[in-house]
Amino acid sequence: MEMVVDFPGGARVDAHFRGHTLMTDQPPQGGGEDSAPMPYEVFLASIGTCAGIYILGFCRQRGIPTENIKIVQNYDVDMTTGLPRTVYLDIQLPPDFPEKYKPAVIRSAEQCKVKKTLEHPPAFEVTTRVAVPA
After folding, report:
1. Residue 73, beta-bridge partner list
2. Total Cβ atoms within 10 A of residue 50
């Protein structure tokens, strides 16, 4: 999948793919207007939302309503690197959620493709070239 990233002004950096635009910005202290999430926030949100997609699929297959299910995500930061050390996903279930499915909901969330990518990171190759004007 190709993704085109451009710079529409200020501290905004947007990604365009599959007919969508994912906008990012920086807060004022980072030179932006806080008009959109920061790229790192989008990355972190992809972890919880990916787990959520798997939980949603699990519940749909079993006819379990999801209106009262939520995931609260937190993480510990390694103070030397500023990077997350541990990401916590707290799946909050309603009181009437079937007890027998609680371990399976956790297993569903653990199937998240973002989580698996972090566990087995890809190689990165960064290059430059002069673009030919259109």
Report:
1. 89
2. 18
